[in-house]
Amino acid sequence: MREESTTENPSGVPGWERLDELEEYQHACRVRLEHVVPVREPLVLVSQVQRSGGTLLSRLFDAHPECHAHPYELHLGRSIRSRWPKLPLDRPEQWFRTLYEPKAAAHLALGYSKPGLKSPDMDVFPFVFLPRLQKRVFDECIAARPVERRRDVYDCYFTSYFNAWLDYQNLYSGPKKVVTGFTPRTTLHEPSIERFFAAYPDGTLVSLVRDPRAWYASASRHRPKYEDLDEAIALWGESTDAALAAARRFGERVLVLTYEELVLETEATMERIAERLEISMSPTLLVPTFNGREIRANSSDRIASYGVLADRTDRYRDVLDQQAIARIDELAGELYERVRSGDGAW
Hints:
The protein has about 350 residues and is of the alpha/beta class.
């Protein structure tokens, strides 16, 4: 007896036979290609050393109707993910291969979850993304008008990305004013910051600085490479110095703030960020979400609740001994106080 094909009509539904499975896919792609939403807004890049609140801030942008929010860490450039790519304009065959993020296909297959967390603390979200459709959208966008600057390539990339994300809940809301994305450590490489602002002269760099005691307590439990206190705090200091240097060099295009401001004074801080980015203040800026659905914090501790967790700011007192706290104060206390006092922050 012949096994029934999934392309046949087992239940007598009218019109079922009109398209087979491949034709359904091709037709869905054609419809999206015919109704592409251009993404040409300036990029707001959140970057600093890991465990500083970058994921949280990116999650607060997620559902804002005026933002195209990249849903996880933005990895443009295949060799070193934190480096902003060089993207030679005379090598168009390299553009998509350079910018494409393989995680999109992985998240299609497995769903999105924040790495480093374990069940039951791990939220897993559907991510309906078609990489081949992304390539088609990108190619059509590139062919539609002359490419005269790197920004044209990035605009086509983000257009292809958000249109190939088929269950993206925020695609048609708007009008959009910014694209947002989070990439750890880009600030640590000065040429990358130069390339970012060369591509996005209207872009904004946001860098978060976390209390070094709280940062070390989180980082040292998250990854073994951060366990050496002096080495870890040296990295924290390098990230902080780089953010302040960028603010001095690029002025209002760089925004430096503390993680503690963000979690303890969330509404006031997001109001100031919204004003700086010229987006409207919205309740969505106060709730971390993934594609519009609430998501738990990417914490080193077990987390049962949702929302912004203010108690993370002094959790280090239960984790670090007094000797470690005193050593961190010695190494980084003065620099952190400079940031808190507003040296380059706003």
